[in-house]
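Dear colleague,

Following up on yesterday's call, I've attached the two folding results inline so they're easy to grep. Please treat them as preliminary; we haven't cross-checked anything against experimental data yet. The first protein's sequence and structure tokens come first.
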Amino acid sequence: MGLGMLMVWSASTPYAQRQFKDPYFFVKRHAVFLTISLGLGVLFSRLRISVYRKLAWLALFLAVVLVMLTFTPLGYGVGGNRNWLNLGGSSSMWRLQPAEFAKLALVVWGAAVLATKRDLLHEVKHVLVPFVLFACGLIGLVVLQKDLGTAIILATLMLGMLWCVGAQFRVIGSLIALFSAGTAAMVIFEPSRMARILGFLDPTADPTGINHQPIRAIYGLATGGWLGVGLGSSRQKWGALSEAHTDFVLAIIGEELGLLGTLCVFALFITLAWGGFRIAMRSSTFFGRLVAAGVTLWLTMQALINILVVLQWAPVLGVPLPFVSYGGSATLANVLAIAALVACARDEPEALAWSQQRARSATPRRHFSTVLPGRRRP
């Protein structure tokens, strides 16, 4: 998150000055979002993992309601996707992207449902109802927002959680075939999506149109070399790469901090993945294991998709880089996900034993005194 704050400041200054006459417009907003997120993150990390389980259905309900509100006058579109809520009237400060919170809701709710049905998951009907049925409904709402990138992440997250609980391969395979057919249909019947696929298949085509951002991202990575051109010295952020502080922030990292800085970002996400799956293996409850696995799958998978897009190894999907890209809703959702992961870590047997030992050592000892004539001796 510290690296994200630094790169949002560096990548957004030209665009912020041009659009808002304030080079620090985006970094100031990002600082506000990050402060709020960290405060709530600390609070939620102190909750017991059992509290998350009790709030699972409420989290799903709120996520569905928020996503549905995007189809009311409160919702508005960005880049053809109607996936935002404007909660501040004419002000753009308080805008919310409900689909980001739908990812966390799916993890917590899905873990609660699958943990409850743990002994019945060998039967297909107990896998399909209610987990797959409700999850597909939530994914369908996101698809109606025309946010294909988030829908793909939600679908992959659902499949990953089914794999973690040992669901039958025929169920997972059928769902993969269904989602693949649906994705293909949405691409074929949507000209803008089809253009992205064709641009991905021919990376040199239309360099000022559909391939403008990917080509400029590669220019940035190539210019950076081993050690980069220096922090703040990017050339691509000066109008060529309009999404420099959001989806393509990794290209600015590669340009300014070089291959070494890019590899450091990769190392941070690898460390996060290792720590997350380690917690998932050691959690004392099945629910905690699923929450930890779901959060880790979500964050690492989203990071991988963003990295592949910037490297032109995948078509543009509009997926931000967790903790690094600018975005208030994504930052808050990501921090809350880490808070849930920390709560799972605190529920490990070793962590519980350490907490109990620490509590015993912190208990004040009782002092006894004997009263003798003329003085008090401890």
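Below is the second protein, in the same order (sequence, then structure):
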Amino acid sequence: MQDDNTAELPSVDELMQRIADSYETLPRQLKSVAAYLEQHRSSVMVDRTSDIASSCGVHPSAVVRFAQRFGFSGFSDLQEVFKQAYTGQSPSGQTYKQRIRKLIDDKPGQLLGGSVAREFVAACKSGLDELDENLDDEAFDAAVKMLQQAENIYVIGVRRSFPVASYIVYALQHTPKRVHLVSGFGGMFREQIRSVKKGDVVIAISFEPYGKETQYCLRVAHHHQAKTLVITDSRLSPLARYATTQLFVKEGSAFAFRSLTSTICLCQALFVALAYKLELTVEESKDIGGYDD
């Protein structure tokens, strides 16, 4: 594919969109490679084919077939897309993980508490930097508009996403909107989401390996023609097919624990942006009323 003219290479976003569009038709092995690329964009340019294959649990030939499936002569040509985008940028989350793994292997049992804290702070900073760099302003504005127009807002997030779901419900309850936390208390996900209807919005927060309960609630919302805002980490997630709007977050991680800092930040920004819009609407109504008098 355009071996002699890298200027004609697609951007990473264009390539990943093509992959996302074809994802459901890919064989299982190629889906694994697609997911790896989405999760490790910044390190793909230096990853060896054999290492990617090992991480995906496939034969190296599957990685080559994946590249050819999307018009490249081999995997090294596909890597050029990522080299063009990421050369010279700061290390990605994957590179950071490799550094942490080496640190643990080199100094088992010798890390002080302060050192652990600083590694987590660095991971959080890395995630926030990536959120700042990759935030889709158009999608964010669409999400705020959707919430502004919603009759009811339902929020679902399970396991590690549950604290974020709880927070955004708490924040949104400071607006005039009717907000519902789909907690699943007593196993009642079905009962709590069954009233969702057209005109409502479901906010679903989920990251790999993607909660089955969250997927169920999204299917119900889709069936009842409610709009959906998905906050997730990949365009290839099973949530994507039911999303009206998506916002993507890649958290930094340390010692195999992912932060929630960037996701909380994004949700706080959603709340503030919505509250601002709603207050403007109130102010405009007051102004109109003043003119009527």
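For the second protein, one point worth flagging: The chain has two domains: 6-86, 137-286.

Best wishes,
A.L.
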